[in-house]
Amino acid sequence: MRRSARVVMAALAGGALLAACSNGGEEPAPAEPATSSPTSGESASPTPSATGTDDDGSQGDDGATAAPAEETDEPADAADFGTEPQNDPDWPSGGSGDLLPTGVRVGSHEGYERVVLDFEGTGTPGWRVEYVDEAVEDPKGDVVDVQGDVTLQVIATGVRYPEGDDETGRVAQGSYDAEDADLVEEVRVTGMFEGQNQAFIGLDEKAPFRVFTLTEPARLVVDVRTTDG
Q1: Overall pTM > 0.85
Q2: In the record, which residues are listed under signal peptide (predicted)?
């Protein structure tokens, strides 16, 4: 057999063998990593982008977006709107309790914008809400930068520190942008100290507000009246 003929036959045989192997043993291409979408709904809470862990073990975040506060519930004895400090009837009693702050939600409704602080656990948070000249973090004394021209300070009592690694990621902490509101610019939760949870609401202008709690689950609600209300 001539040399050129042998070369052609060898090439054909090699090609057939390669085709047979590729039909039966080809490895699948690696799958693209799955991405999860946040669950929507009335009780949804934001998932912060963690940038660090505070001394109490809770997670910080960098500009998470507050989930929408869609509910419009209010108790029959909800307080009137006003600009003076407001607190629950038992203030300043309180201290540590069984509540864990887990979320921040902001919503826009006819006549007002609503900020909801969500809690897990039993009981009802005590509270005091008032306008402050500066957002000062307790107990450090550091001035916190909050978006907006005026600031409402919100103190909730009856809270506890997180326990265990499975709970630290669920604690509401850090800054939450209020994309679903016009008057409310930002909600910043600075953290817990001696049974109190401190947060600041940054507003474009000083406006009347009202405060009340809701149950099942426990929620602390701050409504800020808008100019069209």
Answers
A1: no
A2: 1-19
Sheet holding 150-157, edge to edge: 64-65, 174-177, 184-193, 196-203, 150-157, 126-132, 86-87
Q: Are 25 and 19 in contact (CB under 8 A)?
A: no
pLDDT tens per residue across span 17-67: 334 434 444 444 444 433 333 333 333 333 333 333 333 333 345 567 787
- Contact present, 113 and 181 (Cβ < 8 Å): yes
B/e letters for 122-156, b = 16+ CB within 10 Å, e = fewer, are: eebbbbbbbbeeebbeeeeeeebebbbebbbbbbb
Q: Does 24 reside within a domain?
A: no
Closest by CA to 157, choosing from 203, 213, 229, 81, is: 213
41 part of a folded domain:
no
Give the integer Cα–Cα distance in Å for 66 and 152.
17
Number of domains in the chain: 1
Residue with tokens 């864990």: 100
Closest CA to 183 of 152, 148, 229: 148
Task: Print the domain residue range for 137.
Answer: 64-225
Whether 213 is covered by a domain: the verdict is yes
pLDDT in tens, 1-20: 444 444 333 343 444 433 44
Q: What is the CATH number of the domain that holds 76?
A: 2.60.40.3500
**Helix/strand/coil for 200:** strand
Q: Is residue 209, in this structure, part of any structural domain at all?
A: yes
Q: Which of 69, 167, 163, 73 is nearest to 118 (CA)?
A: 69
